[in-house]
Design goal:
Largest sheet: 2 strands, antiparallel
Structural class: mainly alpha
Order of helices and strands: HHEHEHH
Strand content: under 5%
Strand order of the largest sheet: 1-2
Helix content: 55-70%
Number of domains: 1
Number of helices: 5
Radius of gyration: 19 Å
Length: 102
């Protein structure tokens, strides 16, 4: 039987899955918080420089025939338009969240 070194072995699969779920949850909340703050730069930081985003909102908001943004240069105007067009209910909720007032 080969001796093992716990410090260098990969953690059990269950731990990796939990970590993956935590990362997904964090990204989801970070994205939502950045949109609530209208923080385009924070939204961009959540995407790789060569990220591809496909959404019917791209066509709708940017007037593009194809609903795809291919990198930060195309994502920036999309996020800026999201910032300008986000519903007032979201803006009120963000203000309440930032001030702590209900």
């Amino acid at each position: 039987m080969k001796p093992t070194n716990a410090a260098t072995e990969a953690p059990p699969r269950r731990v990796q899955k939990n970590n993956r779920e935590e990362v997904i949850e964090r990204i989801y909340h970070d994205w939502d918080a950045a949109l609530s703050r209208s923080d385009v730069e924070a939204l961009l930081r959540l995407y790789a420089p060569d990220a591809v985003l496909e959404s019917p909102l791209v066509s709708h908001l940017l007037g593009k025939e194809v609903g795809i943004c291919s990198d930060h240069d195309e994502l920036r105007p999309f996020f800026e338009m999201l910032r300008e067009r986000k519903p007032s209910v979201r803006q009120i909720a963000a203000a309440i969240s930032l001030t702590g007032k209900h």
